[in-house]
Amino acid sequence: MTIRLAHGLVVRDGRVLLVASTYASHDEPLWNLPGGRVERGELLRETVEREVREETSLLARVMNLAYVSESYDGEQHVLATIFEIEVSGEIAIAAAGDHVTGAQWVPIDELRERIAVGVVREPLLAYLQHGTRYLGTHHAGISIRW
Predict the structure, then answer these.
(1) Residue 98 belongs to domain spanning
(2) Of 8, 40, 52, 68, which is least surrounded by CB within 10 A?
(3) What is the pLDDT of residues 48-66, one digit of tens each?
(4) Gap between the Cα atoms of 117 and 18, Å rounded
(5) Which residue in 64, 57, 44, 143 sits closest to 100, CA to CA?
(6) 126 in any annotated domain
């Protein structure tokens, strides 16, 4: 089974917009780019726009494809497509009960410490530092209960 994800990347004044999300399989929230699972009948750009709005209340406009990353979480193939986006509005976190617990503009030089998950962190840093457009690994090094 393949899990398709779509995320938005916005860099503003040397900072990247990140969200903290809780998962049943992890004690602490994990930081990532805003985004999530593609719903049935949804285009990737529609997923990004919906997820950014749901997670941050910001309105997103997809600009360009940034990069693609893929990994395996056991037998599950995880394919993540990341788009450069523009956002407008003010950050507001969704109501209690949602999996997102925070959103912040994080300086680029703090991303390595903030993003604990290597299959999220390494492709992002490779893109920001070298323009790398694809990274893949057979072992995610983490398991997420969706």
Answers:
(1) 2-136
(2) 40
(3) 999 999 999 999 999 999 9
(4) 13
(5) 57
(6) yes
Distance CA(69)–CA(136), nearest Å, equals 5
Rg (CA), the chain: 14
What ranges in the chain are assigned the alpha helix state H?
A: 44-56, 111-114, 118-130
Measured distance CA(70)–CA(72) in Å, rounded = 7
Query: Phi then psi for 128, rounded to 5 degrees?
Result: -65, -35
Asked if residues 10 and 82 have their Cβ atoms less than 8 Å apart, the reply is no
Domain presence at residue 57 = yes
Give the pLDDT of residue 26: 74
Identify whether 23 is part of a domain: yes
pLDDT of residue 96: 46
The answer for residues whose C-beta is within 8 angstroms of residue 141's C-beta and 6 or more apart is: 117, 118, 119
95, 116 in Cβ contact below 8 A? no
- Ranges in the chain, pLDDT < 50: 96
- Please tell me the predicted confidence (pLDDT) of residue 24: 75
Tokens of 55: 């997670």
Number of domains in the chain: 1
- Class of residue 39 by CB neighbours under 10 A (exposed 0-12, middle 13-18, buried 19+): exposed
